[in-house]
UniProtKB/TrEMBL annotation:
Keywords: Cell membrane, Membrane, Transmembrane, Transmembrane helix. The keyword Cytoplasm does not apply. It comes from Streptomyces dubilierae. Residues 263-382, 726-838 form the ABC3 transporter permease C-terminal domain. InterPro entries: ABC3_permease_C, MacB_PCD, Macrolide_Exporter_MacB. This is ABC transporter permease. It comes from the Bacteria.
Amino acid sequence: MLRLAWRTLSGRRAGWAAGFVALVLALVMTTACAVLLESSARAGSSAERYAGADVVVGGQPFVPRAEDLRAALAGLPSVERAVPELSFPMTAVDASGRTVEVPWEGPSLGHSWESAVLGPFALRSGRAPSADREVVLDSVLAGRLGAGPGDTVRLTGPDGLRPYRVSGLVDPPRRPARQYAVFHTPDEARRLAGSAQPVRAIGLLAKGSVDPGALRRQVEQAVHDLYGDDSGSVVVASGAGRADAEFWDVPSPASVLSSLVGTFGALSLFVAGFVVSGTLTLAVAGRLTEIGLLRAVAATKGQIRRMIAMEVLLVTVAAALVGVPGGIGVAALLHRVLVSGGVIPPSFPLSVGPVAPWATVVLAGIVAQLAAFAAARRASRVRPVEVLRESAAPEPRPGWRRVLLGVCVLAGAGGCLGAVAAGRLDGGGGTAESMVLVLMVGVALLAPLICRVASAVLLVPLRPLLPRDGALAVRTLLRRNGRLAATATPLVLSVSLTGTLLCVPLVTAQGAARAERERLVADHVVSASGPGIAPGYAERAARLPGVAAASGQLSVSGELSRVDAGGRAAGPDAGSLVGGGLVAMRAEAVPGLLDLGVRQGSLDRLGDTSVALGEGAAADLGVSVGDRVRVDWDDGGRDTYRVAAVYSRDSGFADALLPRASAARHAAAPLDDTVLVRTAPGADRSAVERELRVLAAEFPGARVGDGAAGAGSRSGAAAGLFVLLLLTMINLFTAVSVVNTLSMATAARRREFALLRLAGAQSGQVLRMLAWEAVLTCAVALLQAAVVCGSVLVPLSVALTGSAVPALAAGPLTALAAGACVLTVATVTLAGRLALRSSTATPGGLARAVS
């Protein structure tokens, strides 16, 4: 069978060229993704601030009862010193007034000088800080600021910018890659932290040559003895785990890369499987006459299937020799682009191991064999008499199982999208983006039937309006639905995916803006361009002349649960909300800043001991106005509140609105995401805005706008860059696939072209017919893509904006549609010209072949 497959493959090199190219491109895409995923799996995060500690006990965000724990750990026989690590949000401003960006979007924190030993950060010059207005900087940050011992730098605190004198510079043994270090005196650090539990971790320095593993076990026991069943609120880490304790709230470069490449890889695998399957199916379908002849000379169905499977295996092996090295090269290029775009730091290594290449080859082989099996199964079922009786091999019709599966897939996707439109299914844009893949599977399964319907809807009414060449093209397309489906499906895939990925963020932003407009009463919105806005901004803005109300919006985290009549919190089965959105604001300012659509109670009843709940959270907890709820904060603290109001406009906002006075003491970073300001009746709104801008100069990162300007959502640069890379590679892949498919389909029509020439058609007429076929194929494909995109975008738009007319990226989609038409016409015209020059496509060549 191997020899037969090799001989048939050698004799049909042109027929398998498209399959070879499709497999090469699929291997390039999947290998690139696999190499990046393997790099993210191999890359480890190194401890920086805790590199000198043997064991770290970290809180998330704070260590509860930190002083008790420090005393307990210091008393262990193997511990030389237990050092509390107190940190707080901090940013530095250079001489031009610009905020100094932290490397690779790491944590922007200041620290107490007593924790410098955990680095260990050793003084390179100067001395330790001895006064509250003195700081020690690491040498890298000092270089960015152009400061040295004795110079003055400006740092942000809760009340805005403050000048500090640099008393010294420090260097750790290993240069930090994800943060800068600023050290204050312990008293100033506690003031700036402003938290009830300011200690984020306790670093332990072991005595002599104590085994870190044994020390860790002692520490774990001490933690359990102190906290009991609540010991899960702290993490005991040693070795590589110290980095996880240090950066618990900041994603590592490896996790960022793996999440992005995981999505990219899933879509790439889907597209690759889609294109490879379609190309191989078309390659096998073009051999129906040959297969019929083999069946006529007693070849069994099993022999036909094994022969095709062996041919595909040989093509896959040849493609792997080209595609795997190409994929490694593309991975290196993507790595360079991601580094330059700031998605991953320059120190992140690209690791090329044996796992990724072999995994992609095996995966490509499985996909190719499945596609070959399906195509060979259909081809082997054609009866030899049918093939030998027809001048051209008949197109196999889709079986009833395939049709039933396609209908079920489309019905399932329709049900999910209907639930999205009705607001019964969470997930929003993510659900919509995944549904386009499901829809494409259904479209591929029913492609011949869908193309037949699309042709009847679009082409039949157009036929009387077209010239003779166009009418002939319509007749040809109506007769060959299988060929039309094979050429149109890659175009549908490309346009549908691109349209969805481009338009879903627009629809989501449109829905967020609508919800914000309905909710917002404030006249001015001050947004944060960095880690956040110091709470002093809102406090000072509230005292400006002409301001009726002002408050920051602080995002906090904790577990919300119902409190029963006995004062006990309900368990998970009795009503609790974990991971819900919690926002804290000044209670007295809320009624003047927000219209939350209150259903029960009143926002005027908010106070330091009351809370407002969204309808969804209230239903989940089973509470109403007057009931009590408890918040278990991440730092181990807990507060109980009375429900003062239940509101309906919680989508995109918060499940619970808490008083800022109590919530800020438990926040990991007590910085406001935004500040809302309401102008007093009769006051000059422009004058208030000018005062807010003047005040913003003292709070780096604060950007003043109005209600409309602050409502829009902003996409991260990393996500935007990766979507751009994703769409570029998908469209390049599908473009090559379209060229392959059209070239193969056109080259297989030499006999048809010769018959047309025998009937008196000129070469120019045949080429014009082919051009019309290409244009009409694009029209059918764009019609299907519009239906797929509309099926996804319309329900999402109805759910988020209340309108059935979604926001569209008209410019890119128009360019994509025009490019698809140009590519299709150019490919078909060139392939048709080459086919007409073939000896078998001339009238004489056909006559010789017949004789």
